[in-house]
Amino acid sequence: MSVLLSSAAAPTAVSTPFASSFNGTPLAPVDAPSSFSLALAALPPGVLMGFAIVIGLVIGSFLNVVVHRLPIMLERAWRADAAELFSDTPCSGDLLNDGLPARYNLWLPRSACPHCGHVLRAWENIPLVSWLLLRGRCSQCGTRVSLRYPAVEIASALCAAGALLAFGPSVKALAAFALSAALIAASMIDLEHHLLPDAITLPLVWAGLLVNLADTFTDLRSALIGAVAGYLVLWSVYWIFRLLRGVEGMGHGDFKLLAALGAWLGWAALPQIVVISAVAGAVVGLAATLSGRMRFEEPLPFGPYLAAGAFITLFAGTPLYRVFA
Ligand SMILES: [Zn+2]
């Protein structure tokens, strides 16, 4: 069985110091240079890389807001639904009372210290820089600010730099960074809340199909089959586990996330993503169980491992296939 996502050896689109292949394994034909790519390619590589890192940090800062607020917004929506359902019972009013302002979304209210409520001033809200200047503490009450904030910003900046290095200044690099950013947010939410929100996974499926209308990472046929196959693979694993052992081995969000990865990277990327995520998940799960940090039956959030498989496939191609070929 051929495992190459695309057999077309494509010409390099833009002549830049950045490589625009998948480390020797082309996943898709590289499209003709657009005026956008040409305009960006005219900039010196150092400026371009600096630009990518700054954009990555800023988007990382936004991802922190998404990771913190999206689960709260979802819980609010569920509470509102429940309150409507139980509107004739005396406790329905309590369901809506969560102590947060009425208008709570990704933009409002302004970011504040969760401990003392101090609203962050502009200079306290600069990605990474503010955390370093304040030495990871709130300027008002001195409470430690989680390492998660700079970690997410750095991860996002690394993805932006990685996308530029791997694909050059192109629409493809922007798309790769958008996928990476969504995967970072989804993974962090899954780690903290054991939840992969539909608000991230479903738009990611449609976005993957749209991106590949122009054969960006793979052709549309492979993307479409990838979306369906990605969903069905984990859906089957879920039902096999459930019927044989009576346990739910994974959440429905995992099916949707693998469907999205199939839509972005094509069906042929799925075996590698599944193998990497299963092996990584098993190793981490075993280590956590042996060290007593997790019980054996406890479900492991699988999103971060699927994301790890996706990152390797996106930036390094399909090295596993070469090992087994
Ligand atoms: Zn504070």
From TrEMBL:
This is Prepilin leader peptidase/N-methyltransferase. It catalyses: Typically cleaves a -Gly-|-Phe- bond to release an N-terminal, basic peptide of 5-8 residues from type IV prepilin, and then N-methylates the new N-terminal amino group, the methyl donor being S-adenosyl-L-methionine. GO terms for molecular function: aspartic-type endopeptidase activity; methyltransferase activity. InterPro entries: Peptidase_A24A_bac, Prepilin_IV_endopep_pep, Prepilin_pept_A24_N, Prepilin_peptidase/N-MTase. Coiled coil: none annotated. It is a multi-pass membrane protein. It is found in: Cell inner membrane; Cell membrane. Belongs to the peptidase A24 family. It comes from the Bacteria. The keyword Transferase applies. GO terms for biological process: methylation; signal peptide processing. Residues 54-165 form the Prepilin peptidase A24 N-terminal domain. Residues 178-286 form the Prepilin type IV endopeptidase peptidase domain. The chain crosses the membrane at residues 39-67, 147-167, 220-241, 261-290, 302-324. One of its GO terms (cellular component) is plasma membrane. Plays an essential role in type IV pili and type II pseudopili formation by proteolytically removing the leader sequence from substrate proteins and subsequently monomethylating the alpha-amino group of the newly exposed N-terminal phenylalanine. It comes from Paraburkholderia bannensis. The keyword Ribosomal protein does not apply. Its EC number is 2.1.1.-, 3.4.23.43. Keywords: Cell inner membrane, Cell membrane, Hydrolase, Membrane, Methyltransferase, Multifunctional enzyme, Protease, S-adenosyl-L-methionine, Transferase, Transmembrane, Transmembrane helix.
